[in-house]
Specification:
single chain; 324 residues; five-stranded parallel sheet
């Protein structure tokens, strides 16, 4: 059988990433990006689909009888209707933990920027150079806080969460994890409400599910310490963005850094842009995962999953149906 493989959004990986030739007869079709209304047309002859971010819902999949595999070039699985795939024999694979180090480093970088204001002072001196701000001997425009000695609360329990904990402890942060519904226990695990109340910095590192959607809303933000820093490198939708905007504008939290938002790609009129000029707010376009090292490993594994499937092997990263 000659497989037809379609990569729906190759722009999701950087230009330096090398695509390894697959060791079996196939045809390859690649698109920079695929809009939802283009999915069915582009996959109508495909036996394998690969995607970094293009959603594949039941309304698409039921029109694609030839499709037998979806290779997700990412860790999260929320962009695919897994129930439909499981019920109709479509294999779905992902690439777990490929970004554990790079996302953890990015989260820590955001914590340092919110605390140390390195970029804010750089931009201030640019304004001094342009004549838009006064020359002074000492500048206290942006308050600087030490990172070491503070408490970091991590909402999550996966490889990224634990890598972030290791990095954070290395710079002197005390770390605690949320105890999600009592599932995880032991030293360092506390209930979510306690973590929210006790942490100086909170990092979101859990999946987006129906359970975690809007998990951090107005009530949770109100429970946090004054001056708390909130970082999200996981998924948009876990933090209620309207509540976050209101809390930051009202001065009830000390700062927020988002690498992910609810509606991606970001629209120019997204309400979050109301915060864009604030020194206590950082907005990135979902880039924490995208170091060149991590992207190469990601694509190598995503292509390896396809090869395993075609050879009749059980892909190590197949997403299995959760039994009720």
């Amino acid at each position: 059988m000659r497989h037809h493989i379609v990569f729906l959004d190759q722009e999701g990986i950087g230009p330096s990433v090398k695509m390894t030739e697959l060791p079996f007869p196939h045809t390859w079709e690649s698109h920079a990006y695929t809009n939802p209304d283009q999915v069915v047309e582009r996959l109508k002859h495909a036996t394998v689909a690969m995607t970094c971010s293009v959603p594949l819902r039941a309304e698409h999949l039921r029109q694609l009888p030839r499709l037998e595999m979806i290779s997700l070039a990412l860790t999260g699985t929320d962009i695919v209707d897994l129930d439909y795939c499981h019920d109709n024999g479509i294999t779905v694979t992902n690439v777990p933990a490929y970004a554990a180090n790079t996302v953890a480093e990015h989260a820590l970088a955001m914590i340092f920027e919110l605390s140390r204001k390195v970029g804010s002072y750089h931009r201030l001196l640019r304004e001094v150079h342009l004549g838009n701000a006064p020359v002074k001997n000492i500048y206290f425009d942006f308050p600087i806080r030490d990172v070491g000695g503070r408490t970091l609360g991590i909402v999550g329990n996966g490889p990224i969460a634990h890598r972030l904990a290791a990095l954070a402890q290395g710079v002197g942060l005390r770390v605690q994890f949320s105890d999600r519904n009592g599932e995880f226990r032991g030293d360092g695990y506390v209930p979510l409400q306690r973590l929210l109340a006790d942490s100086d910095i909170i990092s979101i590192n859990c999946p987006l599910t129906e359970e975690t959607r809007d998990m951090i809303g107005a009530a949770e933000l109100a429970r946090m310490k004054p001056g708390v820093l909130l970082v999200n490198t996981a998924r948009g939708g876990i933090i209620n963005e309207a509540a976050l905007i209101e809390a930051l504008q009202a001065g009830r939290i000390g700062g927020a850094a988002l690498d992910v938002v609810e509606h991606e790609p970001l629209r120019r009129d997204d309400p979050l842009f109301a915060l864009i000029d604030r020194h206590d707010f950082i907005l990135n376009p979902h880039v924490a995962w995208s170091s060149e090292d991590a992207m190469q490993g990601l694509i190598d594994q995503a292509l390896g999953n396809i090869t395993a499937h075609v050879r009749g092997e059980a892909p190590a990263n197949a997403i299995l149906k959760v039994q009720p």
